[in-house]
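An instance as discussed:

___
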Amino acid sequence: MNSKHSQYEDLCKRVINEGIWIDNTRTGKRCLTVINADLEYDMAANEFPLVTTRKTFWKSAIAEMLCYIRGYDNAADFRKVGTKTWDANANLNEAWLNNPYRKGEDDMGRVYGVQGRAWAKPDGGFVDQYNKIIDHLSKGIDDRGEILSFYNPGEFHMGCLRPCMYSHHFSLLGDTLYLNSTQRSCDVPLGLVFNQIQVAWLLQITSQITGLKAGKAFHKIVNAHIYEDQLKLMKEQIKREPYAPPKLLINPDIKSLEDLETWVTVDDFEVVDYQHHDPIKYPFSV
């Protein structure tokens, strides 16, 4: 078996075999936990990192990232694009429901894409991080700070959830673009399945709209864990043999950040040669 095809399953086995039981105060559940995991996706070979040992609903993962790029802060906008991933955090999180900064139903607050596209400056105004990155890369510039950061401790109290995958650092070597993405916390059975897709997609789409070649994406996870109520299902999943990775096709008409902000939908992306096992429904911890 090609190890790159089984990176996900290898990490799952590592958490099960080496993980330490930790109590999680936010969810009230225990989870098996390991510290530091490094995954790598070779986008030059267009090996799209979809988990194959169960069916993965990749369109929802891309829709979520597209909404981050658009700077959306409302779960209703996420649903319109094609994902319900923020419904629970926006509407079922008791702490957020009682937060004075919450504007009403479906409001997410200043999370993820809001920080990426409208980081509030102390002296007034906002910083559009992703626009700056696109502008630089399109001109062949890499100032060693082409960083898209969603992690703003000064505004954690103004959003429903701290970011998990919080930093995306682009690097340019010649005409090839690389990406280092860092994730502070990762629910391996549920979150990582999405996050792998999002890291790979972000490198591919950013490469396309800046006219660059996609190189490798490096995905660092600091705290990788499996919740207690997920463990039995995961032990069954890792018995399955992974298939070869599929490929992601992107509509070649997508040529700018403005395109992503206006007319692009999940239908502009297609996954081909995706072989997978049956779906597994894992419990989600709000």
